Automatic annotation (TrEMBL):
Pfam family for this entry, one: Zn_peptidase_2
Alphabetized UniProt keyword annotations: Membrane, Transmembrane, Transmembrane helix
Protein name (Swiss-Prot/TrEMBL): Neutral zinc metallopeptidase
Lineage, uppermost ranks: Bacteria, Bacillati, Bacillota, Bacilli, Lactobacillales
Membrane-crossing residue ranges in chain numbering: 12-29, 123-145, 151-171, 200-224
Entry keyword Repeat: no
Entry keyword Glycosyltransferase: no
Length: 233
C-alpha cells in the first residue's frame, strides 16, 4: 500500500486556521498603523530624523538610514549596517512612523550590543531558507519512492523554518521594548503619545506571533500526514 497524497483532507483545517490568523494579524497591524499615522507627533519629527537622532543618541555611527519603496517594508540589515524606512515612515511625522522607525533602531542597538538572539537569527537565515524551500520537494520524493527516511528529512527541513520564526519572536519584542525606552528617554514622543506608539508596535509584533503559529500548524499537519508511516517493503 502506497503513501498517497492526502493534501486535501481534514488536516487542511490547520492550514486554514494559520492563514486566517496571519491575515487577521496583517489587517490589524495595517489598521492600527493607519489609525496612528493620522496622529501627528507634537514634536513634528519625521521617521528619518527620529532614526538618525536615536542612532546618534546610542553612539551608533556606522549605520546608514535610507528610504525605500513600499508600505511597512521597514527593516534593519545587520550585514550592510543599513536601516531602511518605507515611504510611509520616512517622511511622516506621525506617532506611528516614529514608533516604527524607533523599532528598527532597536535592531541596530541589538546589533551594536551583540544581542545573542539577533546573531542567532542571522546565523539561521541561510539554513532556514534552504530548509523551507527544499522541505516539500524532499517529502514528495520520499512519498514517490515510499522512503520514510526522506520524508523525515523533509519534516526536519521544514522545522528549520519554524525554528527561525521562534527565534524571531524575542528579537522583535526586545527591539520594541528598546524602542519605547529610547523614545521615552529622548523625549521624541510625549507621555500621551507613547501608549499610542506602543499599540502600533504590539500590533506589528502580533504578525510575527501569527507567522510562528501558522508555520507550527503547517508542520503539525505534515507530521500528522506523513510522520508516523513506515516504509513499505
Amino acid at each position: 500500500m502506497g503513501y498517497g497524497f492526502g493534501f486535501f483532507d481534514g488536516t487542511m483545517i490547520l492550514v486554514i486556521i494559520g492563514m486566517v490568523l496571519s491575515m487577521a494579524a496583517s489587517a490589524y497591524v495595517k489598521s492600527t498603523f493607519s489609525k496612528y499615522d493620522q496622529v501627528k507627533s507634537r514634536n513634528q519629527v519625521t521617521g528619518t530624523k527620529a532614526a538618525q537622532y536615536i542612532l546618534n543618541s546610542q553612539n551608533i555611527h556606522n549605520v546608514g538610514v535610507q528610504q525605500i519603496a513600499g508600505d511597512l517594508t521597514d527593516n534593519y540589515n545587520s550585514g550592510t549596517k543599513m536601516l531602511s524606512l518605507s515611504e510611509a515612515t520616512a517622511q511622516s511625522t506621525s506617532v506611528a512612523a516614529i514608533g516604527v522607525a524607533a523599532h528598527e533602531c532597536g535592531h541596530a542597538v541589538q546589533d551594536a550590543k551583540g544581542y545573542f538572539p539577533l546573531r542567532l537569527r542571522a546565523a539561521i537565515v541561510p539554513v532556514a531558507n534552504i530548509g523551507s524551500s527544499m522541505a516539500m520537494p524532499i517529502i514528495l520524493i520520499g512519498l514517490f519512492l515510499q522512503t520514510q527516511a526522506l520524508i523525515q528529512l523533509g519534516l526536519i527541513a521544514f522545522s528549520l523554518a519554524l525554528l527561525f520564526q521562534i527565534v524571531t519572536l524575542p528579537v522583535e519584542f526586545n527591539a520594541s521594548s528598546r524602542a519605547l525606552s529610547i523614545l521615552a528617554e529622548g523625549g521624541l514622543l510625549t507621555e500621551e503619545e507613547l501608549p499610542q506608539a506602543r499599540k502600533v508596535l504590539i500590533a506589528a509584533a502580533l504578525t510575527y506571533v501569527a507567522a510562528a503559529i501558522s508555520t507550527a500548524l503547517q508542520l503539525l499537519r505534515l507530521v500528522l500526514l506523513f510522520g508516523g508511516r513506515n516504509d513499505d517493503r
